[in-house]
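Tokens for chain A. Residues wanted.
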């Protein structure tokens, strides 16, 4: 699809105008609304258009904005407030043309991150009946059908990272696959999602700590890869957050009688048992998970928000025992004391968010402790605020 810059700016201006009136109406509500809604409205105040989430500079089908859109859609489902639906749908509607072509999406990049916003298309198509959303679903699915794989069938994270499996990618693609399987009534895609999850667990699990490494290189040739195991060297908090969310979300559309559902539940239960060992006395988790209080390490917002969501949802769905609610309670208490703070104007701000981290590519991304703790830190990163909103909604249940 070819769109001009002029069209992009026109769409952006239109969205701003359309959002302004309902947002002012929403902001006029009483201040005693639930915390999840207060945080969401603080985000909308900072970022009047959804593409601006994650401090975005342009209209883009990005995984981070997709995560934010998912949180706002869940908020719409909970509150029935059309303002939140419009915030999401205007963004998606502006990105996808009537042929289902997605603005700036390049399927030949085979980038799993691009699959993440597609999770919303199932709900949007069901609600709006816009055929372009159904067409876009198929375009994303076509990418996954052709996605390069490791010798044992796991998706590469993207084309320029050959033979690399990242925990991030399990969140981006696996719940999409189970949703697609339900949508099309094609059980083979349940199998594909489970193959990805269970295969990644085998290669990324560390039996000594009970944690999961950020990535695995099947070829064992990357500078960051252990030459024997192919695993990256550190336990990056957010990558395990992505993983935990992938595990609880992939079960949403997986039939209860699927014979491998119990395998996923076992991974969830084992992880839930292990993680509290790394929770500090303030209830929080750190950027590099197994090295709390080491110099330059810090209590990082996104890992805590993701764990809040995953623990609370797992308890609510009966995946783990009710006593794990206290882990989520501790995280929330720590966030409110240390990282989630209110401005004088009443806006909530979530601080100490790791802006981005990865492996290889440009820069010295070697997966070491020093690398992760020296990456950029900022406030109100949607990779932290979105799971916080979803986590707070789960806690409200």
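Reply:
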């Amino acid at each position: 699809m070819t769109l001009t810059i002029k069209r992009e700016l026109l769409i952006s201006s239109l969205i701003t105008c359309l959002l302004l009136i309902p947002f002012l109406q929403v902001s006029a509500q009483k201040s005693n609304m639930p915390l999840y809604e207060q945080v969401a409205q603080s985000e909308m105040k900072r970022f009047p258009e959804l593409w601006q989430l994650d401090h975005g500079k342009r209209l883009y089908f990005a995984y981070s904005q997709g995560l934010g859109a998912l949180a706002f859609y869940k908020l719409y489902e909970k509150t029935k407030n059309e303002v939140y639906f419009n915030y999401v749908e205007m963004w998606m509607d502006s990105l996808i043309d009537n042929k289902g072509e997605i603005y700036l999406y390049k399927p030949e990049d085979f980038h799993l991150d691009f699959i993440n916003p597609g999770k919303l298309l199932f709900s949007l198509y069901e609600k709006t009946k816009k055929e372009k959303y159904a067409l876009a679903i198929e375009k994303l699915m076509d990418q996954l059908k052709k996605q390069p794989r490791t010798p044992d069938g796991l998706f590469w994270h993207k084309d320029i990272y050959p033979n690399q499996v990242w925990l991030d990618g399990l969140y981006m693609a696996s719940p999409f696959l189970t949703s697609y399987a339900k949508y099309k009534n094609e059980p083979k895609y349940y199998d594909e999602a489970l193959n990805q999850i269970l295969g990644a667990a085998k290669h990324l699990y560390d039996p000594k700590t009970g944690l999961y490494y950020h990535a695995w290189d099947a070829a064992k040739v990357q500078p960051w890869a252990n030459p024997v195991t192919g695993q990256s060297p550190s336990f990056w908090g957010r990558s395990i957050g992505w993983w935990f969310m992938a595990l609880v979300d992939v079960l949403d559309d997986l039939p209860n009688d699927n014979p491998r559902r119990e395998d996923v539940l076992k991974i969830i239960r084992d992880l839930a048992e292990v993680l509290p060992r790394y929770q500090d006395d303030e209830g929080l988790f750190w950027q590099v998970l197994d090295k709390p209080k080491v110099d330059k390490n810090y209590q990082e917002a996104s890992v805590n928000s993701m764990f809040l969501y995953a623990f609370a949802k797992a308890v609510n769905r009966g995946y783990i025992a009710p006593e794990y609610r206290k882990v989520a309670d501790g995280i929330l208490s720590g966030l409110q004391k240390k990282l989630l703070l209110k401005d004088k104007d009443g806006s909530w701000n979530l601080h100490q968010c790791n802006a981005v981290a990865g492996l290889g590519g440009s820069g010295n991304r070697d997966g070491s402790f020093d690398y992760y703790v020296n990456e950029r830190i900022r406030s109100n990163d949607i990779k932290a605020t979105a799971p916080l909103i979803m986590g707070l909604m789960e806690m409200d249940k």
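The longest helix spans residues 5-27. Residues 1-147 form a domain with the Glycosyltransferase fold (CATH 1.50.10.10).
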